[in-house]
From TrEMBL:
It comes from the Bacteria. Gene3D superfamilies: P-loop containing nucleotide triphosphate hydrolases (3.40.50.300). Keywords: ATP-binding, Cytochrome c-type biogenesis, Membrane, Nucleotide-binding, Translocase, Transport. GO terms for molecular function: ATP binding; ATP hydrolysis activity; transmembrane transporter activity. Residues 1-194 form the ABC transporter domain. It comes from Roseibium hamelinense. GO terms for biological process: cytochrome complex assembly. InterPro entries: AAA+_ATPase (IPR003593), ABC_transporter-like_ATP-bd (IPR003439), ABC_transptr_haem_export_CcmA (IPR005895), P-loop_NTPase (IPR027417). Transmembrane segments: none annotated. The keyword Membrane applies. The keyword Phosphoprotein does not apply. The lineage of its organism: Bacteria, Pseudomonadati, Pseudomonadota, Alphaproteobacteria, Hyphomicrobiales. This is Heme exporter protein A.
Amino acid sequence: MFTGLSFSVGSGASLQVTGANGIGKSSLLRTIAGLVSLTEGELTVEDGDPELTVGEHCHYFGHQNSNKPALTALENLSFWRDFTAPMSKTVFDGSAQAPLAALEMLGIGHTASIPAAYLSAGQGRRLALARLIVTPRPIWLMDEPTSALDTTSEAHLLYLMNLHLKRGGMIITATHTELALSKKQKLHLQAAELA
C-alpha cells in the first residue's frame, strides 16, 4: 500500500518511477492499469473519455509479453488490434500502424508467419511492443521495457517512446535503467511511502 503518494504527468511527458526491488514500482503501474484495485485515493485522466476507466486509456507493457504462443506474430497483432481498436479510436489520436507495418518497424517483419512460441526472447519482446503501435492509447505503462532487448532494439524502442511523447502521449515507466526520454520527470519510491 502506498501512502502520501501524489504525482501528475502532462501530455507529451514521461514519468520514470525508480526505487529498490520490491518497493512497489510494478504495483504502481498495475494499479494505474486497473489490474490492482485502488483502496483509497484517486486516479484521473484529464480530458480523457469520461465513460472509460483510467486503465482503459492505457497500454500496460509488463514483464510477460502476453503473446499467444500458437498464433503467428502477425495473427497476434491482428488479434490485439481487433480486440482493442474500438476503444482506441475514442481515447487517442495517435497514428496506428497496420500489423505487418508494425512488425517491420520493429525489425521483425520476417517473423510474420512464425508462431510466437518459436520466437527468441528479444523477438517476443518486440512483438509485444508492436501492440503499442497497432492500437494507440494515450498512456503507456512500461515495466522494465528494455528487458531482453539488444542495443539496436533498445535504441529503436527509445525512438518509438519519444515519438509517442511527441504526439502528445504519456509514458510511465518503472525501471532501473536511465532512459533518454524527452520531458522526463522522476518519482523515486522509498520505504517510508509504504504502509
